[in-house]
Write a structure and sequence with these properties.
- Helix 1 packs across helix 10, helix 4 packs across helix 8 and helix 5 crosses helix 6.
- A hairpin with a 2-residue loop joins strand 8 and strand 9.
- The chain has 3 domains: 101 residues, Rossmann fold (3-Layer(aba) Sandwich), CATH 3.40.50; 124 residues, ATP-grasp fold, B domain (D-amino Acid Aminotransferase, Chain A, domain 1, 2-Layer Sandwich); 64 residues, Dna Ligase, domain 1, CATH 3.30.1490.20.
- It is globular.
- It starts with 9 loop residues before the first strand and ends in a 7-residue tail after the last helix.
- 37% of the residues lie in helices and 21% in strands.
- The protein has 321 residues and is α+β, with helices and mostly antiparallel strands.
Length: 321
């Protein structure tokens, strides 16, 4: 794909949204807007919410760059609105976004491609509490409790106490409306960025906190992001293939990031696909792209071009853009 953006291209960067990741989205969107302006692109930056979508009516916008995290922006809702309006936008479509946002649905799709995933159960209002408590008593090792449809480690608890896991699970269900309980997988936390069908260099995340939570992701400068810690080329290839298989299993496109636990016997266990990963100074996709020789401006431009190429293939934008 050519990295040259058309002359006079106008990109609207959509940011903000609703929910717990709003502030991160505003930061990400500002970074994307700045990077694209540095590439000579005309940029309109707008805070968008379900109650205020006026920016979608702006005349002359060629591509909408979605930089929202969490509900409304990453769950397929905004993507469906853009589809219905026939607008060109970056990232995965409505169905892929919705599946990626649902961690249980993602697990099912990953398993169908032979990708390993940690064992998990879903908690919903119809679950018998006694059955759940009995199940948790049988689990060995640490337990992860998290919402099914949240990102940035929002609402995550890790414990080795089944009773504490039970209490945390019902707290998550009450707070978020959904909950999954997952067996903790010991190993190394790694992530693989994907841009236009290619895997970026693997990053290992070493947090100084107990796990890579919201604070470690966006606030704590002591979190280490390390390249080339997976030395065996066969293991590297296995991880890259698993990342691309996860992406394809959900039908994702343009860009994203796949999170894994690399077990102690070097098997990648897929956790989730982030269809709109962060673009902040702490964010992993820009770090990996830079390592591959694609600085922030070029990365954003590449994603815009991927969206334009997709729209031309489907005939939703004219060839003269």
């Amino acid at each position: 794909m050519s990295h040259n953006v058309p002359n006079g291209l106008t990109v609207a960067v959509l940011m903000g949204g609703i929910g717990d990741e709003r502030e991160v989205s505003l930061h990400s969107g500002s970074c994307v807007a700045e990077a694209l302006r540095g590439e000579g692109v005309n940029v309109i930056a707008g805070d968008i919410t379900p109650e205020d979508m006026g920016i979608l009516d702006e005349a002359g916008v060629d591509v909408f760059f979605i930089s929202l995290h969490g509900r409304f922006g990453e769950d397929g809702e905004l993507q469906q609105i853009l589809e219905d309006r026939g607008l060109c936008y970056t990232g995965s479509g409505p169905r892929a976004s919705q599946m990626a946002f649902d961690k249980m649905a993602s697990k099912t799709a990953f398993r169908s491609r032979g990708i390993r995933v940690p064992g998990a159960v879903e908690l919903d209002p119809d679950t018998d509490p006694k059955d759940l408590e009995d199940d948790l008593d049988d689990w060995v090792g640490r337990i992860v409790v998290k919402p099914i449809t949240q990102g940035s480690s929002v609402g995550v608890t890790i414990t080795d106490d089944p009773h504490a896991a039970f209490e945390a699970a019902y707290d998550v269900l009450e707070r978020f409306g959904d909950c999954m309980i997952e067996q903790f997988m010991p190993g190394r936390e790694i992530t693989v960025g994907v841009v236009d069908g290619k895997a970026l260099p693997i990053i290992e995340i070493r947090s100084k906190s107990k796990f890579y939570d919201y604070h470690a992701k966006y606030i704590d400068d002591r979190t280490d992001y390390l390249f080339e810690t997976v030395a065996d080329p066969h293991v590297v290839r296995r991880i890259e293939e698993a990342a691309l298989a996860c992406f394809e299993a959900l039908g994702c496109r343009h860009f994203g990031r796949v999170d894994f636990i690399l077990s102690n016997d070097d098997i990648p266990y897929a956790l989730e696909v982030n269809t709109i990963p962060g673009f902040t100074t702490h964010s992993l996709l820009p770090k990996a792209a830079a390592k591959a020789g694609m600085p922030m401006g070029r990365l954003c431009r590449h994603i815009v071009n991927a969206a334009l190429a997709e729209s031309r293939r489907t005939g939703s934008v004219p060839d003269t853009v």
